[in-house]
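To illustrate this point, we now present one chain and its tokenised fold:
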Amino acid sequence: MKKIKDIIECDYDINISGITDDSRNVKKGYLFVATRGFNVDHYDYIDDAVERGCSFIVCDRDIDVDIPYIKVLDINNFFVEACMKFYDICLDDYHFIGITGTDGKTTTATLVKKIIGDAAYVGTNGLSVVDKTFPTKNTTPCVDELYANLKYIKDYCATTVMEVSSEALLHDRVKNFEFDIVAFTNVTGDHLNVHGSFDNYVKCKFKLLDLVKKNGYIVVNGDDKILQNITCQNMSTFGFDKNNDYQIFNVNYLSNFTEISVKYKEEIFEIKSPLKGKHNVYNIVMAFIIGLLFGIDKNVLIERIEKIGYVRGRCEELDFGQDYKIILDYAHTINGTKNILDTFSTCGKLITVVGCAGGREKSKRNIIGNLVMDKSDIAIFTMDDPRDENVSDIIDQMVGSRKDYLRFIDREEAINHALSIANKDDIVLILGKGRDNYMAINNEKVPYCDYEVVEKYFAN
């Protein structure tokens, strides 16, 4: 609870119980800030905020309401400052590690959080502090939710490992942050429906470089062609190419472990992890380097990495006592889909369940569809957050004129069929949603979870 005069200079003596720029989140006693978004002008939702019980409004235009309001010139900047004041946030009290890229953010950030130990995590898999995890609405939460998270984190941890999405950088959600370490996994293109072009997408990713502390560090996947354009001080590159600072020169993919040899100057690091696939080799090595830069002993890092199992919804192997493998993965980009298919397409008969999200880049649908049909023994196409698009139309765009696939509109039905036809030593690969707990249909987020579908199948 705060007084409005503690948030903005004024003569009003009004208690504020919360702060938001989303009228749907308004509760009695809230401050509603009518920010200007890229696609939404929250000024249009002032009446809704009033109806829901807000006590005060800050906007950048005159309005006709029956409750107090104040006008400011820069409404979006005010919103950030107001959230900091409401939640008593001083960013200097925090250490931030920011990880961005098209693929691998969640896995890498989770690995870093676990190897540091005394750190919080904010990303696609929610807010994780100590042994508690809470859901978040976005990979990098919106400003009010983000600062509320920081308020909670402050009581437990000094360090926060954060997935920094291109949309968060586009919308300046972290513009006041100074990161101790930033890391770039790869850049292959995503959310182009939001950014308008690949060049704009890259520019947004690179905005993170401007948020590094003067004595901070930058870690870059040097094998990525786009990331090779980054030239900064205090930068470490890694990858298989011999020109990288940390060169991955030997990888053994064993049945239960992946063994990785990395050379830095004259030193060799031998790293072992249960995570599978070349894409995870990059994630593991990046996490290892971040740990070194953070000041953790190399032997401690190697020991901790070996003990870290699956990351929720990322190449996650589900064990319900079945005699075949079930792999749950969030892969939804072209590169992510290719990586996970390459990892398992040579390990046995592969049954893949996949879809593409509605309201997103249509250009990638047929590419993903062909990848799945080419690399799977059985390809099953279904829904994946169709939003306001017809699921059958999305599948048609994915498969084109090909006939070597199965189609189930209902995702639960698709997964159940895949499980029912799997035999001993087969692999059922369920792609696209990971551990998401909803299905986006029209304007609603309907409760749904791939993991729960599989769990229910084996419970029957």
